[in-house]
Design goal:
Blueprint: E1 6-10, H1 15-21, E2 28-32, H2 40-46, E3 51-56, H3 62-69, E4 77-81, H4 86-94, E5 99-102, H5 107-122, H6 142-155, E6 161-164, H7 171-180, E7 189-193, H8 194-202, H9 208-219, E8 227-231, H10 238-249, E9 254-259, E10 276-279, H11 290-305, E11 311-312, H12 314-322, H13 328-342, E12 347-348, H14 350-358, H15 370-381, H16 383-387, H17 391-407, H18 415-422, H19 426-435
């Protein structure tokens, strides 16, 4: 049984309500008297509603302003105003409503906006992360939680910290987070790339530690205890790395270094080690955090551009979690930014994902996904076909069945519609489904 989304029209059953009913073929539209004593969220919950429509005759009065001010934007509120002005629209939007319409506007457009609001409400990914929660690494994975706890403990220390991890895992973000929550947060955070420093030492007489000391002294003469962040430490020779660690472990400068590879023999933890090591796992090892990270990057883009946050369809979230992410969190951030710019509506869909794929995002699916498992099943179970060189045909047959089974649920198991989408006849669909 399909449950139709419920939309509450806050106002009397007037002519506008009756005309709008004509377009409510895929949602239930009910007129109810507004309970301005409660919050919009409680009112919607009591009526089991996904969207609230607030009908106004004129300007927004004080009582309505107080009611809208309690809205936390988790329930889409659409305001319809009969005699409103541009100032009324701006005032309403400032309260975080979903959208504003004049009652003279096209009813079909209003109905479509209601549908958009329903989808937005039902596909909101996760609880919104607050920027302050992202001082360290954002995530609920046990390894990430433990890593943040270790970073918090190290923030109050002064020993050098080495951050190990693949490119794009968030090493610099973690370093800045340690700086922000440490007692040195008022001191400068100085970043140098070891690749550049290595080139500078080739044309001068100073060693790397001395070059860094001179640069820090000339650039930050008033600061006695800045935090020095060195990226790409792996580009330096072993003796240079050791010299830097020894020099700055004895100075007032707090050293944090990032290292893209954990090479054997370099900075291995021991009882007499004069530094601490934090290893950041790649994104593919904590994929359960992808929805949280994606929502954060969407809200970050929304705040920067001053527009309403967007949501994701379930299909997009599935695609995000199937992708391998060789570029880790940085690649996810870049992809979300492209998707955000390409999607004109308030909902990021799979079509946006496909467009971004064409702009350079390769579909590197996780080896554990169903397609790889399907091929593995062919190789293991069809040993005779494998020996006779029939693996290709066996795999294609099973792929056809999988493709058909993916399409059918999306069209309510209507075989005629599915066949049209797939570009095959209905009889062919039945035969291939049965044969495979």
């Amino acid at each position: 049984m399909i449950v139709m989304p419920r939309v509450i029209y806050c106002g009397p059953e007037d002519s506008l309500f009756k005309r709008l009913l004509r377009y409510a073929d895929d949602f239930v539209l009910e007129a109810r008297k507004t309970s301005l004593q409660s919050t919009p969220q409680k009112f919607a919950h009591s009526r089991k509603a996904s969207v609230l429509i607030l009908k106004l005759k004129n300007e927004i009065d004080i009582k309505t302003q107080e009611w809208l001010s309690k809205n936390d934007a988790s329930i889409p509120v659409i305001v319809l105003c009969q005699n409103g002005t541009a100032e009324t629209a701006i005032q309403a939007l400032q309260y975080g409503i979903y959208d504003y319409f004049s009652t003279s506007q096209n009813l079909e457009a209003i109905a479509q906006k209601i549908r958009d609001a329903i989808v937005w409400k039902n596909t909101r990914a996760v609880k919104r992360p607050i920027t302050s929660d992202y001082h360290l690494l954002l995530g609920k994975n046990p390894d990430i939680v433990m890593l943040n706890q270790q970073a918090q403990r190290l923030a109050s220390d002064s020993t050098p910290v080495l951050l190990l991890g693949e490119a794009g895992t968030g090493k610099e973000h973690l370093a800045q987070g340690i700086h922000r929550i440490s007692s040195r947060k008022s001191e400068p955070f100085v970043r140098y790339d070891c690749r550049l420093l290595k080139q500078l030492t080739q044309y001068g007489n100073l060693s790397l530690p001395e070059l860094l000391r001179v640069r820090l002294k000339s650039a930050f003469s008033k600061s006695e205890a800045p935090i020095l962040f060195l990226t790409h430490m792996e580009q330096l020779a072993s003796h240079q790395q050791q010299e830097i660690m020894e020099r700055f472990s004895e100075s007032r400068v707090r050293l944090i270094a990032s290292y893209q590879e954990n090479r054997p023999g370099l900075f291995q933890e021991s009882t007499d080690s004069n530094h601490s090591t934090l290893k950041i796992p790649p994104l593919r090892q904590h994929k359960e955090d992808i929805p949280l990270l994606a929502e954060y990057f969407v809200r970050q883009n929304s705040q920067q551009k001053g527009i309403r946050p967007k949501g994701f369809t379930d299909e997009v979230l599935m695609l995000l979690q199937e992708y391998v992410w060789p570029g880790n969190i940085q690649e996810l951030s870049n992809l979300i930014e492209r998707m955000f710019l390409l999607e004109p509506s308030h909902l990021i869909t799979s079509s946006t994902w496909r467009i971004c794929q064409g702009q350079g995002t390769k579909m590197n699916l996780d080896p554990t996904n169903q397609f790889a498992a399907l091929l593995e099943g062919v190789l293991k179970s069809e040993e005779l076909e494998w020996k006779e060189g029939k693996v290709y045909n066996a795999f294609i047959e099973r792929m056809e069945k999988l493709l058909i089974e993916l399409v059918l649920p999306k069209v309510d198991n209507n075989q005629a519609v599915a066949a049209k989408i797939l570009g095959i006849s209905r009889n062919t669909l039945r035969q291939r489904r049965k044969y495979a």
